[in-house]
Write a structure and sequence with these properties.
Length: 147
Amino acid sequence: MAYSPPSKATFTGLFPAFAAVTSDQYTFWSARAGRVVDPIQACLDEDADLACMLLTAHYLTQQGIGTGADAVAAAQGASGYKRIKSGSIDLERADSADSAGMGEYGTTSYGKRVYPMLKACLGGPRVTDTGVLPCEAWPYGYQGPIW
């Protein structure tokens, strides 16, 4: 069964920083979040709605929508900068080793919260023992096993 994101009313009730989000904005970005959550809904279990709402908040923040500091910086075109200087004010964003490994999710507070949930359901490669290959498979006449 396809995943359906929570309603706009539920989202804005739990994330009041996005109370001014339009229906079109919410529909578009929550649908994108829903496409991420859908294939891992069973793994997320009861946290599927939370993950979807955090992803939606992450996407909206990246677009400069919302009242949080991350959204305001994105709206002013300053979210991608490490250092900002204006007159006598000089601000520098500290790099965190955790944030650097999160890719685009490390750019917002919402992304940092949802990333561990997604990572737990989308584990890395699986390595299994394949046994001994038959000797005939090796080139140049090699006849011994490879362990």
